[in-house]
Amino acid sequence: MKRLKILCCLVAMAGTVPAEQEPIRALILLTDAGTAGFLKKTLEQSQRFQVTTNEESSGISNQTLASYDVVILKDKLVSLQPVLNRYVKSGKGLFVFGFNAERTNDFLTVRLVDKEHPVSAGMPERFTATERMARNMPAPPGSRILAAIYDKAGSREPVIWTSAPTGQGRGVFTTLGGNIESMYGEGFAATLVRGAEWAATGKVTLPAIVDLFRSPGNRLRVLVVTGGHNYPTSFYTLFEGHDDVAWDHATTNIETAFRSDLRQKYDVVVLYDWYRDEPSDGVRENLLKFIESEKGVVILHHGISDFNAWHWWQEQVQGAKYFFKAEGDHPASSFKHDQDLFLVPVEPHPITKGIGPFHIIDEIYNGMWYSPEITVLLKMTSPLKNTPVAWIGPYRKSRIVYMLPGHDEKSHYHPVFRQLVHRAIQWTGGRLQ
Asked: How far apart are CA 329 and CA 337, in angstroms?
């Protein structure tokens, strides 16, 4: 209790406010990487914070903290008390969470006590916390209690409070967030982002309700099209783990993907399907509208066979053709599984920037036709020397990229290929220059 009182009395209710355009520089001091990651993602999702995490508290000094507007930590790091005292007195912010004394595993009803404070204003008057909640731990004298729980006898236990004024800085303290599971409760995320913002600036601009499961704004909207050819489910991992991409899946191109106008819904279409015929008028019209509106297309591996009978698509869009049978003087193309491909970048380009020669095991296509208008990004040095492997298509009203690899897990999990696919989506979507 003594150490809590000392820590909570470090900060005050007033201070300077940074320009609203500038991000709030937050430092998370936590040894638990999982919890730190959750906090970082939640803060960054608000688009208000620039976040740094540090798992090692030893050696932290006022010089270390000087470049940050707010420090976020759990109650255990009280060894930093002298440093934090000086830090907050200089006008900075502190957010401390997860105080724990006597613990219970209750479903607790938290009630707002102060509806006027910037941190709590607009938050739900009541919300449920699944916590190992602190008991018998009143906030220090002079603290402003924002939310509390009440037992059957009417005794109040503080849950969220701000510190008593003792300098130029501000502090927000909460018993919420005892473990990672409880952080998904209704009140913790809002308390975190609003409390950290107020501690850093003295103002709150962020919403009182925080949706932890929403997609961050301004993501590239991607439609991934499959169907007509088997593939391992490892393919889906190519689109996971990217905060700048939100993707949908269409299991057939003709029946689901292109039966309506895609321009308002998607920025990029990724083709990993197999439909050899020329599309119907309606599908062709929707594809033309999408491409001519400067949207992006990424074609992977066997997607080269799409619309094989549609000459405009083969010649102008993807800039290559796989021949299922001989046509005129051109013999049928062929394929070979599990080939050792040695690949090198050709043209300097944002998609291949920083990528050197690499080796991958994949299926190759031999005997294809390539348009002289393509811009080659990668080529083979073996087994088919100088054969294009990745390129930009000839159609200049849009951004079209084809990549040969992608047959199975050996490429789906290959770090260079994964990076290339993500960059291709970014570039065709206009986000990579």
From this structure: 26
Which single residue is written with the structure tokens 């005997």?
A: 367
The answer to whether 163 touches 189, Cβ cutoff 8 Å, is no
Counts for the chain of helices (H) and strands (E), in that order: 9, 20
DSSP 254: I
Q: Percentages helix, strand, coil for the chain, rounded to the nearest 5?
A: 25, 30, 45
In sequence order, which residues have a C-beta less than 8 Å from that of residue 418 and are 6 or more positions away? Answer: 237, 238, 412
Rg of the chain on CA atoms, in Å: 28
Phi-psi region of 307 (alpha: psi -120 to 50; beta: other; left: phi over 0): left
> How far is Cα 277 from Cα 114, in angstroms, rounded to an integer?
67
Q: Which amino acid is at 375?
A: T
- pTM of full prediction above 0.70: no
> Which candidate, 2, 61, 3, 76, places its Cα nearest to that of 27?
61
* CA 245/CA 236 separation, integer angstroms: 13
Q: Which residue has the tokens 């298509």?
A: 393
Determine contact, residues 132/179, Cβ cutoff 8 Å.
yes
Percent of the chain with pLDDT over 70: 88
Q: How far apart are CA 145 and CA 90, in angstroms?
A: 24
Question: Which of the residue ranges 37-51, 95-109, 360-374 would you say has the lowest mean pLDDT?
Answer: 95-109
From the list 201, 194, 168, the residue with the least C-alpha distance to 24 is: 201
- Both tokens of 311, joined, read 């000459």
CB 423 within 8 A of CB 345: no
- Residue 329: C-alpha distances to residues 321, 322, 323, 325 (Å): 14, 14, 11, 11
Given the DSSP bridges, would you call strands 105-112 and 144-150 parallel, antiparallel or unpaired? antiparallel
Low-confidence winner among 26-35, 77-86, 184-193 (lowest mean pLDDT): 77-86
Which amino acid type is present at position 326?
Answer: A
CA 263 from chain center: how many Å? 23
Q: Please name the helix (run of DSSP H) or strand (run of DSSP E) that holds residue 298, with its range, or none.
A: strand 296-300
For the chain, domains (ranges, CATH) are 2-201 (3.40.50.880), 220-428 (3.40.50.880)
